[in-house]
Task: structure prediction
Amino acid sequence: MKNIIVILFILLLAMSCNQSGTKRSDSKIFGLASPIQLVGDTTEVFLSDYFMDEVSVDSIISDDEALEVSNDGDNIFLITDGETQPVSNLTVYAEGIPHAFLVKGTDLQEIDFQVNTQGIFYSNFRVKGEFNNWDINGSNPLRNCGNDSYYLFLNLKPGKYQYKLVADGQEIDDPSNPVKVSNGMGGFNNVLEVKGPSKDELPSISTDSFTKTEIIISSIKTEGVYAYWNNFRIEAKKEGNKFKLLIPPFAKYEARSHIRVFGYNDVAASNDLLFPLAKGKVITDPSKLNSNDWHSSVMYFMMVDRFVNGDKSNDEPVNDPAILPKAQYYGGDIAGITQKIKDGYFQELGINTIWISPITQNPTDAWGQFNDPDTKFSGYHGYWPITSTKVDYRLGSPEDVKEMLRVAHNNGLSVLLDYVANHVHEQHSVYQKHRDWVTPLYLPDGTMNTEKWDEHRLTTWFDTFLPTLDLRKQEVTDFIVDSALHWITEYDFDGFRHDATKHIPNNFWRTLNKKVKKVSQEKGKYIYQIGETYGTHDLINSYIGSGLLDAQFDFNMYDNALPVFATEDEPMTRLGEALEASLSTYGYHHLMGNITGNQDKPRFMSYADGTLDFNTPWMEYKRVGWKQTIEVQDSLAYQRMAMFNAFNMTIPGIPIIYYGDEIGMAGAGDPDNRRMMRFENLKKQEVKLQKEIAGLIQLRNENLALVYGDFKIIKNTDKKFTYSRKYFDNEVTITLNKEDWTYSIN
Result:
């Protein structure tokens, strides 16, 4: 069957070449089709996630005998009551064309989770953790099995999971589990480890060599591979511990195409490989990449109001003494960003993508309330939209935005816009005209539905003046989607950063993605979308894929990296384990965002110099910023920041620098972490850090091993973490050493 598929595919593509030697695209899929992840007994695959237009499905073939396949015309259902293969292939014949999809099997284990309460009895005993998105109602109560023993069966993948027990409404540590880690909010979580296959059982594949016609990969303990050119399966011939892949001859008609490889044995799936091709030739020269090659992106995020004041004529703080200075408009604007592009700031740093905070009109009066100190806030941050398509005049004009984008594109920069879809400010016309378009402020029990981030994540309000749109209603989704499209059609932004992703239902993302892809096709460029979700790996991943988002921020990676790089005691082993968990979830060539910080987190430097303590309650971080003048106290923090950036620049994913981190700005919680950017009168250590980070970015930009290379952990101990990236004959070894806070990249 495999050979028949390959032959049919070659014949079909051969027929697609016209007499002039150019080739029309036979694939009805835009971009690379994301792998299908099996979930439970039945996995629903939305055909509209993959195919741009409605297609007629001729037949569907799976090479996993444990899968039963059915199709209702719109969706495919993959059903299993047995053990599936680690990976398999699903071929969907749509209007005569065999589109191939990798299928990832499930590796769930039934875990008997037990707790001994040491003589204490609880009538309502539950657990919340990373395995149920920290929702105490996300799993059944623990059952008493006699005296002070309790148990609960959980279906979990191999990995480590943080959790807390909730006993009669009170959070407690697990008295029967001594393994704990800091939760970063003034407390600790217990850790449950689910064992998987041993490392010496796992298969792995790596780049070996290539010619004009084939790619050779090496393997260890690998039974077979699935290889794909774009979204079509290609043959992989095994010779000893190597596999030979024929580069399809018709690839020469495509300006950019890709080959992906996934290995497996009877125990597990291997890592994956990705090769970009230019006119059918393997790319090894970084200069051959372009703005559509998002894996090579290095991103920089700034809050517009806090970056550069380029036009003082639009300065207009809110005239209300209830707003303390740190919560006021500072005067930063679009013209200021344009100025810094023209000055070459981003280019000298090595940045090729910038992400700007929301620029839609925000209210002109004061809102919100913080106590101790008492202050209200202006909408300087942009996350309180009173319109969805108009530029806030305090940030600039439509002409200013278009000029910024023109200058950015002329200087090789892509620009992402932060877009708010989840909620509006109560002054927004959509709320004024359609009160039925928002979710209820009050729950059925009469309590207020605010900040219920996990319990009611699709309906909760951020504040009483920020109504959450009920995007489960298609008419509401259509309105907000069309508002988002305005920014990529009228203003030519290159993509979106989406706020509050997990609070938005998937029908919205599917509607948006479909329309964004059409704009991408019309413009001839790939419009990238990244989301913001705080939660488990599985929750974050549930918003990623064909038909949804390209990526999200890897907050789980950040939450583990932060204490490792900021403190002496947190072991490097935690970093390696967190990285392996991310790679096993998102793949080894993902487009996830790896951050050094963001507008919601205290600055890394203020942890790294000891000013802030990880045991501090979360709200106290904000009060510290209001009550203290925080500056960097320990020069060692600069070395730690450099090492953090060395890590982000050399692992899979897109490194993202929060403005000011390149010079080591200090700051506690919001808004102290949103100070005005500084460009002049820098300290020697700040200048040194900036140059060092620029050097790291340059190293990444000039080395495809750090973009498309294999990833392999060589050694991981408490104080030292060594790993490698390899792209054919180009191999880079990275060592991060906490003994003296140095790193090497060779």
